[in-house]
């Protein structure tokens, strides 16, 4: 006897992923699409977002691209509007866009610190506020509204510091606090807010610091599973948090790090 395939968990849902053109953001978009969501890739690099959206569309998914600098309130609101204009609503926001700038603490410039916090923390605030306002408006217009889900992107570096990335450490710690605050503020509206904290994931950022075998070995020495994670492995957890499979979860940070936090030091 054949068993019917389970319906996609996000069928009919509409999502925006910031920083969705590549890396973890694109991994999130692929996982959301695989679960049936329609996805807007919002990225400061519009050409890259369009290429990635085209690849998703060629694979049979519903995907679009919009230029978005998450430091700008108007851009965050425009990304939300793009989803609503194209597909009539917004159900899921993945606030993923982020940058890192490394320098010895005594030499780090004020500008570098400000740049990282502006994207990684202020950008999450602006993105999520724009999304939440749209979701609350939908609730008011539709008595059958099923709620919304917001997923922020934290990091193991929210709790484990690296001295050369002070701005990044501070911004990701702030994301954890902001996530908890939003989860309380938005719970009465039926909007759940959770976060994912990746460890070492195969992205362009990691490639820039793991440029030789010694650097790669240092990364693997702090990862009990003995390998670097893939963007889609983060995307699968994001899809879970965006779906009703996590319907009683809010205000949580899930660390997807190959065991790094459990180890808590470098071998």
UniProtKB/TrEMBL annotation:
PROSITE patterns: ADH_SHORT (PS00061)
Xref: InterPro entries: KR_dom, NAD(P)-bd_dom_sf, Sc_DH/Rdtase_CS, SDR_fam
Gene3D superfamilies, per database record: NAD(P)-binding Rossmann-like Domain
Pfam families given in the database record: adh_short_C2
Keywords, comma-separated and alphabetical: Oxidoreductase
A Gene Ontology molecular function term of the record: oxidoreductase activity, acting on the CH-OH group of donors, NAD or NADP as acceptor
GO biological process, one term: fatty acid biosynthetic process
Domain called Ketoreductase: residue spans: 13-199
Signal peptide start-end: none
Cross-referenced PANTHER family: 3-OXOACYL-[ACYL-CARRIER-PROTEIN] REDUCTASE, SHORT-CHAIN DEHYDROGENASES/REDUCTASES FAMILY MEMBER
NCBIfam families named among the record's database cross-references: PRK07231.1 (NF005559)
Family membership: Belongs to the short-chain dehydrogenases/reductases (SDR) family.
Name of the protein described by the UniProt record: Ketoreductase domain-containing protein
Natural source organism: Chlamydomonas reinhardtii
């Amino acid at each position: 006897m054949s068993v019917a395939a389970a319906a996609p968990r996000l069928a009919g849902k509409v999502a925006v992923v910031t920083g969705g053109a590549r890396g973890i953001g694109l991994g999130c978009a692929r996982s959301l699409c695989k679960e049936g969501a329609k996805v807007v890739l919002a990225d400061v690099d519009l050409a890259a977002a369009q290429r990635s959206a085209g690849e998703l569309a060629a694979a049979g998914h519903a995907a679009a691209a919009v230029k978005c600098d998450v430091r700008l309130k108007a851009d965050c609101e425009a990304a939300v509007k793009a989803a609503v204009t194209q597909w009539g609503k917004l159900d899921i926001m993945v606030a993923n866009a982020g940058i890192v700038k490394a320098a010895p603490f005594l030499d780090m410039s004020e500008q570098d610190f400000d740049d990282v916090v502006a994207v990684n923390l202020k950008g999450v605030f602006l993105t999520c506020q724009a999304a939440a306002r749209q979701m609350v408006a939908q609730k008011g217009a539709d008595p059958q509204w099923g709620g919304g889900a917001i997923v922020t992107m934290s990091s193991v570096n929210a709790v484990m510091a690296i001295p050369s990335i002070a701005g990044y450490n501070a911004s990701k710690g702030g994301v954890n606090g902001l996530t908890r605050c939003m989860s309380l503020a938005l719970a009465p509206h039926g909007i759940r807010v959770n976060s994912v904290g990746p460890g070492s994931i195969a992205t362009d950022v990691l490639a820039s610091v793991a440029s030789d075998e010694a650097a790669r070995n240092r990364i693997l020495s702090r990862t009990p599973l003995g390998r670097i994670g893939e963007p889609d492995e983060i995307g699968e957890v994001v899809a879970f948090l965006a779906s009703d499979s996590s319907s009683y979860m809010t205000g949580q940070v899930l660390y997807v790090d190959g065991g790094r936090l459990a180890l808590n030091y470098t071998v």
